[in-house]
Amino acid sequence: MRESWPIFGVDLHLEIDPALGRQRGLEQALRAAIRSRRLVSGTRLPATRRLAADLGLSRGTVRGAYDQLVAEGYLTADQGSGTAVAQLPHLSADVPGEPSAPAPEVPWHDLRPGRPDASAFPVTAWLRSARRALTAAPADAYAYGDPRGQFELRTAVAAYLGRTRGVLAHPDRIVITNGYVQALALLTRVLAENGPATVAMEDPGAAFHREVVRRAGATVAPLPVDDRGARTDLLATFPSVDAVEVTPAHQYPTGHTLHPARRRELVAWARSTSGLVIENDYDGEFRYDRHPVGAIQGTAAEHVAYVGTVSKTLGPALRLGWVVCPRRLLTPLVEAKQYDDHHTEVPGQLTLADFIDSHAYDRHIRTSRLRYQRRRDQLLARLRALPGPPARRPAVHGIAAGLHVLLSLPDQGPTEEDVLSAAAARALRLGRLNGRWHASGDHPQGVIIGYGTPSEHAYPAALDALTDALDCVYGAA
Amino acid sequence: MRESWPIFGVDLHLEIDPALGRQRGLEQALRAAIRSRRLVSGTRLPATRRLAADLGLSRGTVRGAYDQLVAEGYLTADQGSGTAVAQLPHLSADVPGEPSAPAPEVPWHDLRPGRPDASAFPVTAWLRSARRALTAAPADAYAYGDPRGQFELRTAVAAYLGRTRGVLAHPDRIVITNGYVQALALLTRVLAENGPATVAMEDPGAAFHREVVRRAGATVAPLPVDDRGARTDLLATFPSVDAVEVTPAHQYPTGHTLHPARRRELVAWARSTSGLVIENDYDGEFRYDRHPVGAIQGTAAEHVAYVGTVSKTLGPALRLGWVVCPRRLLTPLVEAKQYDDHHTEVPGQLTLADFIDSHAYDRHIRTSRLRYQRRRDQLLARLRALPGPPARRPAVHGIAAGLHVLLSLPDQGPTEEDVLSAAAARALRLGRLNGRWHASGDHPQGVIIGYGTPSEHAYPAALDALTDALDCVYGAA
User: Least CB-CB distance to A99: which of B172, B341, B348?
Assistant: First the structure.
């Protein structure tokens, strides 16, 4: 229904959407006219009788529309002066133009670390578990949930961790979080609750996690890493450290496994200072040449907050993780979770519980482990075949586990930049060791290769691009 | 396979689970023996040859198990002195007894506010959307997602909010959060990023949200509420306020709608001080006698952070909400979200996007609105029939919208405690106005009735219990 109102001295067209009904349609049309500045602030609207006649509507309808827009602040109604358009901000500036859809990805070969093969997500099995879990769930599963997480999932995770990771887990000691980042943020907030806190973090390590800790209110102390993993032997020399975050099963990014002596030193430090060990078991499920090293937590349950997630086993998009924590931390941790987002969403928790209990989780991990091991072996075969004198060639670290390896580059050989630009020239993305140091400076050179990232069909081409890039860099000498 | 080792001077039984294979079975058995203190710290283990012979295993198997447990810290291996049980904490104290399953709920009539009817969650329709959305999703939907939230959901929400709540929404201005609590926590952290911040919050209001704001680093200033809603007219007299959190559509818990004059004063305050309005539209979908009052954000998009969720429309368990925020807040808010938990889980977002786009959301809200309106009318009919002199009887507020009403109790009548204890005597749970004041003291008495909470079949009995309790309290005079 189109109407022209000479009344405002402009040829004003009101599009009244019949689907909305007369009054709401009129309101929408007036809102649109006001927002688009076709009706400017201060403009007096016609009396309801007059407008009703013009539009062929009842006076009640027009009055209803006016009242509504007065209530919403678009119009003002004053005794005497009648109804007028209110003062509004210049809305055209309020909203940008078209929604920016995610930029279409240029086809890159992606060998960046920290990502599993997302194309391997078991959609069908996951949906099967979702259907089973959600149809079986009691009504109150859709009301507010337990801030610690659903009992079903905590029970399933406790059994799984005890069985596969040697974790001394108990459903009452588990807090479900939205993946690792939230677990780290919550633990840090708990540490920083009663005054300044310092968290020692591996150097090199995940820069993003350092920022998570800083924003959560703690200071970060860099803990050097060598080929035995984190230098926990140095902790005794640190002035005051409240917690130490480590990746013992497969140090990120160097890939080393924390040496037994270092594990003992770490636990000894925790016992003597009653400091907290944050055990980031981000890829502990993936170990290829021998079965996994059990978690440190299994030997020091009251000193270690063990954190695991499904980010590398199923997919980061699920944002599902768990903290198995010492008794003293349980209450503050649960409170921190509660005041951060109440609890983790329930449908995903119930689905994962079913997924674990039905052994679909074990099956998926076994399949993934074989696939990743095959990829790793193919990668190592390529790396062994590099040209050039051994002294210039990179050394490969962290091959025993996880989804990535580190190429450490000898000083007399090509630099990080050389390798990365040769890769970029072949539309290949690799990880740089560079950004992962605590402080910039003169650090050992290295490149990180995440062989878990590509989909199965994309992996061979990525390997070819890598070989091509490295042949070029190391052949040219 | 059972083995007895006289070697340790005790009759030690090792349960070796054949399913685990020889080496892992031996490891598990040794771990269990050490944890249970059947093998105490310092105990020397037999030489591999000896134990292998005793157990009928190969030396390699036994050595492998020893190495593994040394790596895990259960055993120590020293040159000369051989392999021994390491020092471990007293693990029996590490873990409490049986997992405490959620306590079975005694059958209460539940008329507490703040909860929708969880039994009405549309499981089948939700699973249908989940199947459609997840099977159609590209592989990278299971990798790390957009910290702002999935584009599909932000687009669906923007259209929905523009259409139903008069919100000036745009996908680029929306950040998906884990419900209202996280939205409030993130906004507060952004405000508190550069020094001390103060947030004015309605008094009475949700005590839990005040604590969320405090923990997120801001000071809470109480903003009185009267029958025109929050006293925004007082804001000018507040020394320094960075943000004001309001529930304009249906004040929680008094149920009043923010008066148009108060809306104008609030927006004027925001414009003149460039302060932030946090518009908590927690139950804006439910208005019964006229269609909803549009959001304040629609008239002041650059001054209002509009927050909505599915907690009252679908269920709090989904932990899905959205912030439509001013341009200046967008980047800091997205960063706060990213460093808090990376992003909200993707499957739920994609499912909700499909649920909205397929109009299942509108249908569900329409059905719910009719059901809740019917419940409200039944409740009001009961309340009108209360015995006793009018001067003593409660006044009913907030009937026009939402899922709860407030009974304000006149001084000369029964007290909050009188009503609540009469209710408790009938196994009926109600909300108390008492705990919702900013500071304890001599406050008006009131009781909050959440008629949305019970399942459809449980509602009549809950109403009977309520009537019975009130008849008793108001009859007795």
Answer: B172
Please work out, in degrees rounded to the nearest 5, the angle formed at the alpha carbon of residue A275 by the alpha carbons of A270 and A277: 70
* Contact by Cβ (8 Å): B42, B53: no
CB contact under 8 A, A86 and B264: yes
pLDDT band at A36 (very low <50, low <70, confident <90, very high): low
Q: What is the ipTM of this complex?
A: 0.83
Chain A residues touching residue B155 (CB < 8 angstroms)? 99
The pair phi, psi for residue A325, each rounded to 5°, is -125, 155
Question: Quick one: pLDDT band at residue B1, thresholds 50, 70, 90?
Answer: very low
Other C-beta atoms closer than 10 Å to the C-beta of B375 total 21
Q: CA B294, CA A184: separation in Å to the nearest integer?
A: 40
Tokens 């507490």 appear where? B112
- Output the six-digit token pair for B130: 């989940």
Cβ contacts (< 8 Å) between A182 and chain B: which residues?
340-342
Cβ <8 Å between B74 and A299: yes
CA–CA separation, A225 vs A203, rounded Å?
6
Q: Which amino acid would we find at residue A78? A: D
Residue A175 token pair: 């807090």
pLDDT in tens, B231-276: 999 999 998 999 999 999 999 999 999 999 999 999 999 999 999 9
At residue B69's C-alpha, the angle toward residues B68 and B75, to 5°, is 140
Q: What are the φ/ψ torsions at residue B251 (nearest 5 degrees)?
A: -55, 135
Question: pLDDT higher for B207 or B100?
Answer: B207
Range A383-476: architecture per CATH: Alpha-Beta Complex (3.90)
Contacts by residues B151-156 (CB-CB < 8 Å, ≥ 24 positions apart) = B151/A99, B151/A101, B151/A102, B152/B349, B152/B350, B152/B353, B152/B354, B153/B349, B153/B350, B153/B352, B153/B353, B153/B356, B154/A99, B154/B322, B155/A99, B155/B353, B156/B352, B156/B353, B156/B356, B156/B357
Tell me what pLDDT residue A90 has.
Answer: 43
For residues A227 and A230, give the distance between their C-alpha atoms in angstroms, rounded to a whole number. Answer: 8
DSSP SS3 for A221 = strand
Q: Which residue has the higher pLDDT, B176 or A50?
A: B176
- Candidate from B74, B172, B319 with C-beta closest to A341: B319
Say yes or no: domain A119-363 is CATH 3.40.640.10: yes
Domain residue limits, chain B: 3-94, 119-363, 383-476
- Put simply, the answer to whether A115 touches B179 (Cβ < 8 Å) is no
* Two tokens, residue A164: 């596969």
Cβ-count burial of A302 within 10 angstroms (0-12 exposed, 13-18 middle, 19+ buried)? buried
Beta-strand (E) ranges in B67-211?
75-78, 82-85, 109-111, 174-177, 198-203
Nearest residue on chain B to A24, alpha-carbon basis = B291
Average pLDDT over residues A352-376: 96
Lowest mean pLDDT among A388-392, B79-83, B111-115, B216-220: B79-83
Looking at 1.10.3980.10, 3.30.470.20, 1.20.1070.10, 1.10.10.10, the CATH number of the domain B3-94 comes to 1.10.10.10
What are B209's two structure tokens?
């949200």
